[in-house]
Amino acid sequence: MAHKLRMLGGVLLPLAFIITTGCNQSNSGSDTGAKPTDQLAPPEQTGILEVATRNGATTYYLDRNENPIGPEYSLVSQFAASKGWTVNWTQYDSTAAVLKALESGNTHMAAAGLTHLPSRTKKFTRGPAHTEIIEQLVCHRERRPMPRKPDSIANVGISVTADSSYVETLNKLASEHEGITFSEDSSKTTEVLLSDVARQDIDCTVADSNIVQVMRRHFPHLEVAMNLTQGSNIGRGHLLDARQLARELGKNPDSWDDMKKVLPLKADKRYYPSTRYGYARGYEPVHYVQRIRNYRDVIRTAFE
Predict the structure, then answer these.
(1) Domains (ranges, CATH) in the chain?
(2) In a 10 Å sphere around its CB, with 0-12 CB exposed, 13-18 middle and 19+ buried, how is residue 261 labelled?
(3) DSSP code, position 226
(4) What does pTM read for this prediction?
């Protein structure tokens, strides 16, 4: 199963700007399509980084004392502090609005739980990934029948937030399986749609696994029907295969330098047929570990 990657604070940056960060607060209404009257000066000049975000437990929100907190807030604020900048946060109502603000040049950076997508990379420079998530189809636990496979979600009422990564995922599934339909809601966030599922106002929605985990604390009737994006299939059995293969090749199974060369062989037809558990996409955990190390290097540089 191949995990989706979340960018630095879900960070996307427009091609014209460099990663820089900085903390005032402001709220935005729905006027996200307005063109900026003046081009934003880079934070290197002003000492202020404009950041677009959206309210959510996995992104940015206010605590009981009205202080901003959240994973995205923490990451961006710490990075900004290392540069001596302040951050001007602007909250938007949806992912679509955040992306429109970024595209229009109204902000330097988006930190809103955004996912790496080829369609977004064409427009924006992506930040380093910091979290692995899985897109999940979520329904009310009392729903019958519960859709467990792509073939069984035909005729299921699915609503997702507009312009999200879920739209691309569902479009891909619809091209492969007949009868899959869904609607996009431009006025509701993923969290709101999950609460709609819990109240049985809609059949199902699609959400990131970290959002689902948080929301299920408040809405225990939410049930994960199926994972729509697959995760790495390197389980314990495949790892044992790779360790044995390392020994056979004269490598050290306790050395990452050796194992990062051996693990991809689990997808090589010259090697995997002779292993106990067979084929596996062994290159995926190698790439995953490398991304973590790259992110560590980015953070280390920021705080030096």
Answers:
(1) 4-133 (3.40.190.10), 135-227 (3.40.190.10), 236-303 (no CATH)
(2) middle
(3) E
(4) 0.63
Q: What is the pLDDT along the chain (304 residues), one digit of tens a residue?
A: 334 545 544 455 443 332 333 333 444 444 444 444 467 899 999 999 999 998 888 888 888 899 999 888 998 999 899 999 999 999 998 888 888 898 898 899 998 888 877 788 788 887 766 677 788 999 999 999 999 888 899 989 999 999 898 998 999 899 988 999 999 998 898 999 999 999 999 999 999 988 999 999 999 999 999 888 754 446 677 888 899 999 999 999 999 899 999 999 988 889 988 888 787 778 878 877 777 777 677 766 665 5
Taking CA atoms, 97 is separated from 38, 44, 69, 219, 275, in Å, by 20, 26, 21, 27, 50
